[in-house]
Amino acid sequence: MRLPRIVQLEVTTACQLRCTFCARTVLKNQWVSAHLDWEVFSSLLPFVRHIKLVHLQGWGEPLLHPQLWDMAAAIKQRGGRVSLTTNAVLLDEVASREACRIGFDLVAISVAGALAETNDSLRVGSRLDQICANTSYLCHLKPRPKVTLIMQMMKPNMEELPELVTLAKNLGADEVVAPNLDYTPTPEVAALRAFGLSPNSNYIKLIEEAKRKGKELGIKVHIYSLTPRNDVLMCDAEPVHNIWITVWGEMAPCPYVALPCRNDFPRLFWGKEEQLPRFSFGKVTEGLDRVLDNERARPFQGAFARRLQTDKLTILADAAIPSMPTLMSRFVAFQKTLAELNARRQTVGLPPPPSLCQNCYKLYGL
Ligand code: SF4
Q1: Domain ranges of the chain
Q2: Helices 93-102 and 128-139, interaxial angle, to 10°?
Q3: Is 224 touching ligand 1 by the criterion CB < 6 Å?
Q4: pTM of the complete model beyond 0.70
Q5: Distance in angstroms (rounded) separating the CA atoms of residues 288 and 281
Q6: Domain 6-288, CATH
Q7: Residues facing 273 on adjacent strands
Q8: What spacing in Å lies between the alpha carbon of 258 and ligand 1's midpoint?
Q9: Is there a smaller number of Cβ atoms within 10 Å at the N or the C end of the chain?
Q10: What share of the chain in percent tops pLDDT 70?
Q11: Count of Cβ atoms closer than 10 Å to residue 295 Cβ
Q12: Ligand 1 atom closest to Cα of 363?
């Protein structure tokens, strides 16, 4: 039986905020707000103890689901591991104690800045002081889940990246993660992204400073690259291993191909717009293992699996490249080997990714 490592489960597509950069806000005319049915959820339960993690997060705020705690408890009772991403508006003292009682393994809290002015203007409807109070309460409970602060990097909040690390330390959180604004449905959202084809030197300095601060304060810091790469074998959604389950129980490779929209939805890639139809492999109610073995899942996952396999073969072939003999030349040797590896990769030619992925920023390591 082939099962995913990580399942990301969209418990709701509803949200009480109106974040300026969020697909839910900008696509509101075609958005469908819904909660996951218990029946759909329970079809996952027989598998959870074989899955590394069930992450409760979708294009909505999970704490709005009236049965969120029941779902998490059911996963834990069956020997699964469970985590959550939340905007922390409803993560009050009662909710935090409940998360600890159930035994959540990770709680990730989204912010859009380290200063109230920035966060509150980007995450319309949220208040940084409330998020901080709720995060701090959770962090001081014992035992408690790992707590991560997540901030999508955007032009208006880049200056606050180092400050975010200090904030995490002050609140008692364990980690800071800063991904890119990787899904851009409109030109207005695209204008906010911090990444680009050539690196912004000030942003690079801010990232280095945030990393330095993380080391100094003992906070783990994970910041995504601001420049695209063309040697990514598989995006970090890891569609060969992981699965995304939508609010209607559809199994998809990632959140970016199955937005909860009535019709096709837009995606901008370096300024070029396209309309995407919603894509999924099938319904989880048909059986998680069965869907992963069907004629839609196999070719999609197989395309990435072949890329990984080709790279392994290339590396094996390259093992014959002689290493440089002296200590002094180690760096030169590394550079040379890397260049040769890349050249060999280009000659061998990587199998193409699924066509749906070719215009996705995640495929370029962003
Ligand atoms: S490359 Fe993009 S669209 Fe393709 S699986 Fe990864 S995240 Fe999804």
Answers
A1: 6-288, 295-364
A2: 40
A3: no
A4: yes
A5: 10
A6: 3.20.20.70
A7: 268
A8: 11
A9: N
A10: 90
A11: 8
A12: 1
